[in-house]
Specification:
The chain is of the alpha/beta class. It is built from 14 helices and 15 strands. The protein has a 9-stranded mixed sheet, sandwiched between helices. The longest helix has 17 residues.
Length: about 375
Amino acid sequence: MSAIYLHIPFCKQICHYCNFYATASTKYRKGFVEALLQEMDLRHDYLEDKTISSIYFGGGTPSLLSTTDINALIDKIQHSYDVADDVEITLEGNPDDLTEDPIKALKNETPINRLSMGVQSFFSDDLQYLNRVHDGKQARQSIEFALKHGLFHMTIDLIYGIPTLTEEKWLENLEIFFSYGLPHLSSYALTVEPKTALDVLIAKKKMAAVDENQSIRHFEMLLEQTKAHNYIHYEISNFALSDQYSRHNSMYWLGGHYVGFGPSAHSYNGYSRQWNVSNMKAYMEADIAEKVVAEKEVLSKNQTYNEYVMTSLRTSWGCDMVHVNHVFGSAYVKHFESHIHSFVEEGKCRKEGNTYLLTDYGKRFADGIAGEVFLNVEG
């Protein structure tokens, strides 16, 4: 099984914390869907005829697309690929776009069967800090409209560690989420990425800085509350009720193959990685029918091992030494176990059978732990 990702980079305004490629300009919106369709023709063979089990509209703000555009893109995929009968088709959207009429149109006029809502918080002061367009009332209304019209297969994003977000408010955010009975939650710590608006504003002391201790406490509360409500913590930032995992997210974390269309979109087919140019002008003005403005790398054995370690340690499935031995060889198992040992002693990692998993405490240090067991990428 494989996946298709479509990057829709347009936004009404850019959030202060965002480091994904997006543009608030409408200059290239006309003709963009046609460029995506042309790129699909050009890169049709990238996945080598594997069955598509997930189609994901990400961004940016895909909910700015019309139903006509959404259907044109899905029709193209269905005619160009072997698409599973039960394919998961996810659309990311913002509450300010997902009012009742657009929700009804998505449900009745498109094959979209899953929504990913960028709620971030149900409190308007948090949303103002993040420079979101919607307010807390709209966040709740968009969820209620989706449930009213039968789009139950839904996830929302919530951000913790926002300076305006007290522990009481964070707990209330989670309680509101639980009250809707939604099957999935993605929750991320607010991170100040270099060169974002948030980075600049904090440096100029125009906005409050992120407190790492606050973020840690919020993360602990997140783990406590999701566990109490029977959500499975299947990846560092993702929680789901039983059998409600995101098929698309799981594809990434379990090493599945995927192709990405649109500016900045990434692709992976097991032995190479490719990423499109993060520039609308370059993407749109290139002769897309002849080439894609992209960079590509063929992964070495060590890079492939590092990819597996990085992704598997983030999941509830863990890093399997039987898999490592089968795919990479016993020397890689020896290297991994010799470097993970100290983290087991520190209580950051545990071993179950042949698999190593992060503890709740260790999940705070996931990237650092993975980095310690990496191998030189030249191998």
